[in-house]
Amino acid sequence: MRVFIALFLLFLIEGTWAAIFSWHYMTPFLALTLIGLMYISLYGRFESAFGFGLVFGLLYDIVYTDLLGIYLFTFSLIPLLVSFVLKYIGENFFSVVITFTFMILVYSFTIYSVMAAIGGTTMTMQTLLVEQIPGTLFVNAIAIAVLYYPMTRYVATRPVAKRG
């Protein structure tokens, strides 16, 4: 229950950030909920991260899009990828920050590709690469680094065997 509350607070902070700072495509997209899900999949139980990914992905689809399934799919898939990648690389501060930041890049391209395929975005690829992605990666890398210590302590209540 406390992990759900933490993810819901991250969701609210992320929604508030988007509401306050959304003036144009230059606005960096802060993916706090996805970062929280990645920490849960890495330091907690993967089943919990998958379930929370389904719940919060559906919540994102209902609140932010007209099409169900885009965020539901990505919020369930990306924590799985993170846990498998870091199982083989090793877990320390720098590998976590680099892997999570790369997954934010994958997440951004996935959302853009799906939205462009169905005609749900007016953003061009050049706008995405030049205006959106650099700020998004920078802001999320800072958020990943800031959340590293609290999330590793908050989520890892007991050791569990890694999947793989």
Automatic annotation (TrEMBL):
<keyword id="KW-0133">Cell shape</keyword>
<keyword id="KW-1133">Transmembrane helix</keyword>
<keyword id="KW-0472">Membrane</keyword>
<feature type="transmembrane region" description="Helical">
    <location>
        <begin position="28"/>
        <end position="46"/>
    </location>
</feature>
<feature type="transmembrane region" description="Helical">
    <location>
        <begin position="128"/>
        <end position="149"/>
    </location>
</feature>
<dbReference type="Pfam" id="PF04093">
    <property type="entry name" value="MreD"/>
</dbReference>
<comment type="similarity">
    <text>Belongs to the MreD family.</text>
</comment>
<keyword id="KW-0812">Transmembrane</keyword>
<dbReference type="InterPro" id="IPR007227">
    <property type="entry name" value="Cell_shape_determining_MreD"/>
</dbReference>
<protein>
    <submittedName>
        <fullName>Rod shape-determining protein MreD</fullName>
    </submittedName>
</protein>
<feature type="transmembrane region" description="Helical">
    <location>
        <begin position="93"/>
        <end position="116"/>
    </location>
</feature>
<feature type="transmembrane region" description="Helical">
    <location>
        <begin position="58"/>
        <end position="81"/>
    </location>
</feature>
<keyword id="KW-1003">Cell membrane</keyword>
